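Quick one, T. Sequence first:
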Amino acid sequence: MIRVFKMCAALVERVLGEFDQDISLFEDLLAELDGYLEKERNRAYLEEEKSTRLVQGKERLQLARQLAHKEVERRTGSTVLPPFVNHFLEQYWQNLLLVRFMVDGEESILWKQALATMDNLVWSVRPKGAAERERLVKLLPGLLASLRAGASAISMRETVFQQFLGQLADCHAMIVNRSVEEAGKVVLDNPAAEQIPELELDDSLTVATLSRMIEEQDLQGVEV
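Structure tokens:
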């Protein structure tokens, strides 16, 4: 409103300074005022629209965090998994789910693929009979490719991802040749595994991705 008042004051000043019996001045000033008011209405509409998107963005981000946590917890809480798998799901794959939900949506193929990959990973480290071991061998190439694609999407450090793959390979080798209990034991007892630090929660993996998305959607102010 202050801008409008200043504009009106400027028009009054022009009338006082320029009017000399030529009434066409008032027509010119009226047209100028109408144009200015139209720009102000458009600006107000855009600001309101941006504010609405900002609120919706914050709400969507909160929903994404809750849903990603819920989906991971459903897998990690319903079965006993090797610790390194729990760490990977809770501290990395959960970030991927967050990004997939925000960028692509809950109905997207990429979201469903991320869930399917998580299910396949959990299944791959559970006890198996002979037939299931054959299925595991066939499943592994696609599973590893999906894990790599997900890790890349959240910019997971290659060294950390390779450490995870090494542990996973040890576990799968034991499952194929013996039992999942021995697989878990070999991972926990492996001296090389002891040199791998626990995967600490690294929110920075998704901050860059979400920040780019927020900037593209003009949602500045949403905290990631």
